[in-house]
Each structure stands twice: as C-alpha cells, then as structure tokens.
Amino acid sequence: MDSNFYHIFYLRRRGNDALSSIYLRVTIKGKRATTSVNRKISPEFWNSTAGRANGNSQNIKILNRYLSKVENNLYIAHQKLLEKGNSFTAQDLINTYLGKDKENEDQVKMLLEIFQEHNDRVNRLIGKDFAAGTAERYRTAKKHVEEYIKKEYKVKDIPVNEVDHKFISGLEYYLKTERNCAHNSAIKYITNFKKIIRIAHVNEWITKDPFLNWKGKLKVVDREFLTKEELQVMVGKEIKNQRLCLVKDIFLFCCFTGLSYADVEKLSAKEVVTGFDGNQWIKTKRTKTKTRSSIPLLPTAEAILEKYSTHPEVSEERLLPVLSNQKTNAYLKEIADICGINKNLTFHLARHTFATTVTLSNGVPIESVSKMLGHKNLQTTQHYAKILDRKVSDDMAALKNRLGSDFMAGDI
C-alpha cells in the first residue's frame, strides 16, 4: 500500500477581502483534497515557498505555531489510517484530520456552536432547572470567549479540539486585562466555559480534557455589610424622593429578612403565612439554589409590607413594587450619599447585613441563620461568623486605644 502523502499550505482570496484564507492541500497518488484551516492573512506577509507567514510579531508567531500544530495533527491522522490497514485517499486523510470518517460525515464540532447549543437549552429551562441569572452568566461567558477568539485567532470560531491549556490561560489573561475582570469574576466565567468543554469531552468530540491541569481558585473576599449604627441611620432617614424612598424601604426589607434581589422581586402573598407560633413567616424557595427558606418576619419588615399593601403595582403575585436590579443599585449609590454611608452599597449587601448585624451579632445561632438564608451547607454561613471575628478584633483594638495608658500591664 502506497502510504506517502504530500501537503502544502496556500492562500485563497475571495472578492474584495484584503485578507486571504489559508488552505491545506493534501495529495495522495496524484489525487488532491483541500480544507480551510480557518485562518486569514495579508498576502504580503505570506511565504508561499515555506508555507508560513513572514515576520516576528506576536500574531505571526501564533499563526506559525498553529500551522505547525495542523501539520502535526495531519501526521497523527495519517498514522491512524495506516494502523487500520486499509487503503485511503487524500479526502480520507482530510476527513480523519477534521474528525470525520466514512461512516460519519458530520462537520468537526465548532466551539461557539456547542456553547450556543448549551445556552439555548439553558434558556428553555429557566424557571425549571436554571435561574434567569444563570442563563445570563452563560450568555456573558460565551460573549467573552467569542471576543477572545476574534482578538487572538482572527476568526469567528474555532474547532473545539483546538482548545488547549494555552487557550484557557490566554482567556484568563484576556479577561483580567482586556475586560478588566476581577480575579473571582474571571475564574467564574472560565468555570462556565469549562462546562462546555466537559460536554465536548463526554460526547467524545475531543479526546482529552484541556482543563485537566488548570487550577482556578477563588480568592476569599470580605463581604461588606451595614453596621448597627449605619442601619439605624438608614431606618431613621426621611427621604422625600418617592423612588429613592421605595428603593430604601425594599433594601431595608431585605436587611431584615435576608432575601436576595431575585427572591424579593418574586415574593408573593402565598409565601407569607401564619406560622405555628401565630406570627407571620416568609416560606419560600430560593431562586438560585431551589432550597427552602423559612424566615419569621421582624416588625420592620412587617411594617414595610403594610406600607406598600395598597401600592398600585402590588398584587397577590407581587407583594413589593421592586424596580429593576440595575436601577435599584444605581439608586442605592444616591441613598448611601444621603445617609452618609461610605460603602459601595449594592442590593446584595442587604443579605450580608441580615446575616451579620441583624442575626449573628444578636446571638441567633448559626444553624438558624443558615436555614433562614437557605444555604445548602453550614460552611457557607460560617463565612459570616469569620467576618464577625474580624469585627471583634477591630473593636478590641479600638478599645485598647481608648484605654491608653490608664491600665498599664506594669500597674498590675
């Protein structure tokens, strides 16, 4: 069996496009087969004799390394066909290189196509298996991957089997530099992307998981919360602007219930019930985790519900007239200024305030706080206890300064 083959890279220009597409041509026994390598280059930088790009720029180096990788994969495909022991054509070699064979003529799987298929499934399952926020994060993750591919590879999409450790590391660097993402945000987006690669691996569209040696560890971030004094200032502050007052009240409602934005936005009359003790309770299922939360209503929260019971936008299905998350967070910045609170006030800070200032600081057992917050495990709630330990340390340091030299160790 004649197993020799020949190959070249060459350019093909279409229309008025200033860039030419790079193609791979394989020849076996005088018969040819071609395929695009999904890359483009200006003809002035192309060396047709070497089948490579000329120059020392970073983009040129990346392109030439990629072409070398294509060559290597072509030789691997050739060896695979030789091991089968059957005769094969140039087209068979191209098909094997692309991940196709005579029995399966499907096109090689493209990364962003797989990502979009996944996101479409998630969108159809919103409210069942996924929250709307989860779907939004996957859409944003896909957008970041798409923009990274355009910037680094100069194409709209790449075959999923081209994703390697270098691609992942490059994506992380891109998110932190070009997109200015904080470390934890970048890691979360890559974790979303990791699920797409796992899907490809399970379906055998790729033979090796490129995330095998990637370690993405989140940094522990101190969660801000309102102190007792700041909370008292906000409760007592009279705000005449109706929209700001509305946002302040709903924020305070969550400070005294621990509900997240998604949970208070959907809070309905059927979720406010009379408990075994004769008091009003919120019994709801968390939008994010689907876990149950049981929260006795404190007087401040009850008063806010009563205040808005006759609001025109309130109904049995919606107990509070919650504005959009974006508008709410924008108004909270104004409210922080009005109240003299020097913190980055966001809606989620209300949930942290409930966990720390309202409950744990007042002796509510951590097990009870965990149940009210709807946490799946106690470790999540324990992070708030660590925050309080830090506060105790700060308070004691301040006490030492106040005591000064009045109580010197030498006097004992």
From TrEMBL:
The keyword DNA damage does not apply. Residues 221-401 form the Tyr recombinase domain. CDD domains: INTN1_C_like. Keywords: DNA recombination, DNA-binding. SUPFAM superfamilies: DNA breaking-rejoining enzymes. Belongs to the 'phage' integrase family. This is Site-specific integrase. It comes from Autumnicola tepida. The lineage of its organism: Bacteria, Pseudomonadati, Bacteroidota, Flavobacteriia, Flavobacteriales.
